Amino acid sequence: MLVFAASDKGGTGRSVTSCNVAFHLAQRHDVAYLDFDFGSPTAGAIFDITRAERGIEQEGMHSYFTDGLADPRRLDVWTSTSRPDLRGANIRAGRLTFFPGEIGGAEFGMTDERVDRCAELLTQLDHEYEVVLVDLSAGRSTALHMALAATALSKMRSVTCRWLVFHRWTRQHIVAAHGLVYGKHGILEVGKISGHDQKDLQEDIRFVRVAVPLLKEHNPAQSAPQATWLLAYDDELRKLAVDRRLGQSRVLGTTPVEPILQYREQLITESDVAAKIANATTIKGFRSLADRLVDDEVWEGA
Amino acid sequence: MVIIGEVRTSLLHTSLPLPGAAAADLLALRPGTQVRATSRPINRTLSPDTVTGVDCSLPSEPRTRSRGIGTVVTRAIVVGGMVAQASSRAELEWTDYRERKPWKYYSRRPGVIEVSGPVTTDQVLAGFQMPSRQPETLDLGSISQRMINHVQDRPQLDNLTALRTRPTSMRWTAVGVEDAVPAVRLHIEDATMRTVRVTVPPHLLEEAVGFCEDLALHDWLYTTLGHVIAQAERDMARDADPMKGLRAGLSLLVRLWMPGAHVSPELRPLWQGLEAVPGFSEPWQRQVDWIRDQVFMRSLAAVEELHH
After folding, report:
1. CB B194: neighbour CB atoms within 10 A?
2. Which of A86, B53, B86, B174 is least surrounded, with the fewest CB atoms within 10 Å of its CB?
3. CATH, residue A134
4. Which residues span the domain enclosing A178?
C-alpha cells in the first residue's frame, strides 16, 4: 500500500505525524518512509538519525530523480537512530526503512522521465514493504504532482493508494486544506488531468486534524468566558469543516496538542508516556491513525 | 584470470507463475534476439546479453589508482516463472596502454574490461568483496538493478503480488587458478548483501557465472522463506492470522528449491561444500516443514471449530 502525506501549509505537523504513524505501523509491518519533502528534508531529525538530520550529502532521494541513481540510500531506523528506547523496543517489530532526502537539495521540475522513475521506485517498494509512506512537500509541489502523475499510470492501477491531507484546527488551515483538495490546481483537479478517475481518487483521500485542543478536559487556568468562547468557536470550526467537505466521514483521525511536539519534532514512545513527559492521548491518536490507515473498512465509501 | 559479477534477485511482479512461453516473451527484450530456455528440472529462461560500456576506476582495497575500460554484459533470468534475476559480469584483463581506444575495439569484446594503473588483482578482488561499495567506482549492482527494473516493468506482468519480499544482491568474484580444486566462500554481509568468492580451474571460469546465479537464487529463497516465518510469528504474537503469508510462501517458493540443477556438473561439488557448511537444503526443509505444520494445525483447528 502506498500512502501519500500532503498538506497545504508547512508547519501543519505533517512530517512529525507521518513519522509517528510509520513508527506504529512498523510494530507489525515492514514500512518504508520516503522523504519527498525535497526543499527541506526533516524526517531524519524526527527519527533522531544524527547523520541524516537535514538529509544526507549524496545518494538520497534527490539524486534518484536528478542523477539517475539506481539505489537510493536506505537507513534502517532501528539501528540508525540515536534514541536508545527505539532500538529493540519490540523484538518482533517489522522493518522501518527511511529513504532520506539530501542536504541543500531543492525542488526540481517534473518531467515524464521523473514520473516514470517515481512509478518505478514506488512499484518496487510496494512489492517489498507492506506500507510505503511518502512525505510530500507542502503545497502544490512538484512532489505532489509527480506522485499524482505516477500513480495514474496504467501499470500502477493495481496498487492501493491512500492520500492523507494534514491540517491544523484553525479556520485558515481548514480553508487551505479544502483548497488543496477541491480547489484550483488542487489534488482532484491535477489528479484528473493526470488520468485519475476523480471519484475514485476522492474516495482515497482522508483528512488528518493535527494538534486539536481537547476542550472537554477541565482546565483550571481557563476563565469561564474563555471556555465558552472556545467551545463555541470549536463548534463553528466543525460546521466550517463539514461545509468545506472536511467533515467527520472524511477524517482519518485527530491528534491532540502535545507539548513535547511544540518544542521538538520527534517520535513519541511508550517510554515518553511512562516518564510522564508525553500525554497518553498523543500516542493513542497516532496509534489510531496507524490502525485506521490500514483498515480497509475505513476506506470503503466516504 | 578474473571475472567479477553482481546478481540481483527478486520476486517477479506477478500474482501467478508465468508459463514458459510468457517467460520467454518477457525476456525477449529486443526484437530478433534469442531467448534461451530450459524446462527441466525446472523452467529457467535467459534473456540475451545486453552490453554496457564503462570507463571508470575499480573498487580496490587498499584503495589504489586504476582505470577500467571496456564492457559489462548483463542478462536477465526468470526461474520457475516467478523469480527474476539480473546478472552482470565482466572479465578483467590487465593492460599497459593508457589512452582509451575507439569504442569499436571494446564492443568487439563484450564482457571484458581492460585494467590499467598500479592496482593489483588482489587489491581489486578485495575491493569487490567489501560489504559496502566504494563510491565513484564500477557499480555492477546498479547496472543489474536497471535490468531488473526493466524486466519488472514489462507488460506481461500483472503487477500484483501475493507475497512481499526483499530483493538481495550478491557480489561475486571468480578466479581461475591452474589445477585448483573448485572452492567457494559465501559471506552474508547484511540483510540483503552477500559476497561470494569462487576459485576454479581456468577452463571452468565461465561456468562459475551460472553457479553464482544459482547460489544467489537459493540464498534469496532461503532468506525469503525466513522472512515469511518471521512475519507469521509476528502475526501470531498479536493474534492476527498468519495463513495468507504462509500459504503464499508454500505455493510460490518451495517448488523452486533445486540447488545445482542448472549448474555445470564439474561445479556441483561447490554445492556439496555449501550443503555441509553452512548448510542449505536441510535447514530449508526444516523451515518448509514448520510452515506445513502450522498450516496443517490451523486447518485442523478450523475444521474442529466447524464441528462444534
Report:
1. 22
2. B53
3. 3.40.50.300
4. 2-297
Give the gap in angstroms from C-alpha B51 to the nearest C-alpha of chain A: 17
Out of A78-87, B84-93, B208-217, which region has the weakest mean confidence (pLDDT)?
Answer: A78-87
User: What's the CA gap between B195 and B187, in Å, rounded?
Assistant: 5
Q: Are B86 and B209 in contact (CB under 8 A)?
A: no
Tell the residue number behind the cell numbers 485519475, with chain if given: A196
**CB B95 within 8 Å of CB B112:** no
pLDDT in tens, A192-237: 999 999 999 999 999 999 999 888 776 778 888 888 898 899 999 9
Judged against a pLDDT cut of 70, whether residue A301 lies above it is answered with: no
Alpha carbons A130 and A118: distance in angstroms, whole number: 18
8-state DSSP, A52: G
Please state, in angstroms and as integers, the Cα–Cα distance from residue A295 to each residue in A84, A134, A260, following that order. Answer: 31, 18, 29
Give domain status of residue A14, yes or no.
yes
Size of interface A-B (CB pairs under 8 A): 52
Domain boundaries along the sequence of chain B: 2-216, 222-307
pLDDT for the residue numbered A302: 52
B149 interaction partners in chain A (CB closer than 8 Å): 70, 120, 124
Task: Collapse the DSSP code of B196 into the 3-class scheme (helix H, G, I; strand E, B; otherwise coil) and give the result.
Answer: strand
B153/A155 Cβ within 8 A? yes
What total number of domains does chain A contain?
1
CB contact under 8 Å between A123 and B159, yes or no, is: yes
Gap between the Cα atoms of A242 and A250, Å rounded: 9
**pLDDT tops 90 at residue A89:** no
Pairing of strands B50-56, B83-94: unpaired
Residues with Cβ within 8 Å of A111's Cβ and at least 6 positions away in sequence, in order, are none
Flag whether pLDDT at A64 surpasses 70: yes
A244-284 tens-digit pLDDT: 999 999 999 999 988 889 888 999 998 899 899 999 999 99
Query: Which residues of chain B have a CB within 8 Å of the CB of A69?
Result: 142
Nearest of B66, B63, B214, B56 to residue B138 by alpha carbon: B56
A124 — contact with chain B (CB < 8 Å)?
A: yes
Q: Give a yes or no: residue A302 inside a domain.
A: no
Q: Using a CB-CB distance cutoff of 8 angstroms, which residues of chain A are in contact with residue B164?
A: 30, 127-130
Q: Are residues B145 and A130, on separate chains, in Cβ contact within 8 Å?
A: no
Residue A6 lies in a domain: yes
